[in-house]
Design a protein that fits this description.
By secondary structure, the chain is mostly beta strands. Belongs to the glycosyl hydrolase 130 family.
Length: 369
């Protein structure tokens, strides 16, 4: 079995139906439609919650570069003098000086529910009327990278909310994966990848987290581990209040540079061997590095114990898939897995490809035996 294709791209977004349409005083375009959360709906279809990055067509004008910002009164364009910023990356600009990293975005991300056929290969309907947009000050620069978990009869969706106040993880809940309710901030520190396990362990919710930082302490020279970003664990009685787990989760291995940086991918799901978790490893290269997807099996009772893992990637960037979108490309060498659903003898895996489009791959369960 080998099914691997792009199922949704910026060309599939109707800009006229965007929640920003007519609300931003400048021309916009879809920079990317990618990093989709994935779950199965009660009707048997699949739901992708697609991150749509809507960008300013001409962010630089009149000697300034502009950022889109949500407010309760509407969307605003904030101008920054060009001499104060670095504009090398088309997705963002960095402030010069100040003693620490400060950036702003030339796009604003919102979430678009896209309903797929049960196999994930055909778009059935795009639910523009149910788009999730910024609704609080801590989301004023956008809502990014949904991850959806079903725990019992409830769906839990974590997102990254971006603002000058904080770079936080926020939680949405739903009884049907159709109507979502914002519960607020659940992790206050910078954290890009919070994934809630699809099931309780000893009556508690568990999650993978990946706190960001610029400083790490070295492991001993003979350690099998490499210092750097790692996948941590946290526990909660209610999915709202989280305590970091004392033992670490998945750490970068000293034997390879391909996973020198890592973070969670798809929410861990239960299998006969334990919890299957798909995660991304980043090999240093160029501006953003090479992103690949890897897998591990975690102990069903103590997810800090890794039962099985491999250095070989499960998914790699696939330039042949994005070749028809070559005129839209601004980044390459990135596959960023964000969802997984059980489909019998295989899994349907959803990823963002090149920070541009949504990729669906069917992967046989025998790959994880």
């Amino acid at each position: 079995m080998h099914i691997d294709r792009i199922v949704f791209s910026p060309r599939d977004v109707d800009l006229a139906r965007s929640p920003l349409a007519g609300r931003v005083e400048a021309e916009t375009y879809i920079l990317g439609a990618f990093n989709p959360g994935l779950t199965r709906l009660p009707n048997g279809n699949l739901l992708m919650m697609v991150r749509v990055a809507e960008a300013l067509r001409h962010p630089i004008r009149d000697g300034h570069i502009h950022a889109i910002r949500w407010t309760v009164e509407g969307y605003r364009l904030d101008p920054w003098p060009l001499q104060l910023v670095d504009t090398a990356d088309p997705r963002k600009f960095m402030m010069r000086g100040g003693g620490w990293k400060v950036m702003a975005l030339t796009s604003l991300s919102w979430l678009l529910p896209v309903e797929l056929s049960p196999d994930g290969l055909r778009v059935e309907v795009v639910h523009y009327d149910r788009a999730i947009v910024p609704a609080a000050d801590y989301q004023c620069y956008g809502v990014e990278d949904a991850r959806i978990s079903r725990v019992g009869d409830r769906w839990l969706m974590t997102t990254c909310s971006v603002s000058p106040e904080r770079h936080s993880t926020t939680l949405y809940t739903s009884d049907d994966a159709v109507d979502w309710r914002l519960e607020g901030i659940v992790l206050d520190h910078q954290n890009k990848d919070m994934l809630i396990f699809e099931g309780l362990i000893a009556g508690e919710y568990w999650a993978q987290t990946r706190p960001l930082g610029d400083l790490y302490f070295a492991y001993p020279p003979d350690s099998p581990w490499r210092a750097g970003p790692s996948i941590n664990l946290a526990r909660s009685p209610d999915a709202l209040h989280w305590k970091p787990h004392d033992r670490p989760g998945i750490r970068p291995h000293a034997a390879t540079m391909a996973t020198a940086r890592m973070g969670g991918g798809a929410p861990p799901i239960a299998t006969e061997r334990g919890w299957l978790t798909l995660w991304h490893g980043v090999e240093p290269s160029g501006v953003v590095g090479i992103y690949r997807t890897y897998w591990s099996i975690l102990d069903r009772d103590d997810p800090s114990i890794v039962v099985d893992t491999r250095h070989e990637p499960l998914l790699e960037p696939a330039p042949d898939l994005t070749e028809p979108l070559a005129d839209l490309m601004y980044l390459d060498q990135v596959v960023f897995t964000t969802g997984i659903v059980d489909a019998g003898d295989h899994y349907v895996v959803a990823s963002g490809e090149a920070d541009l489009a949504c990729r669906v791959t069917h992967i046989g369960k025998d790959r994880f035996a």
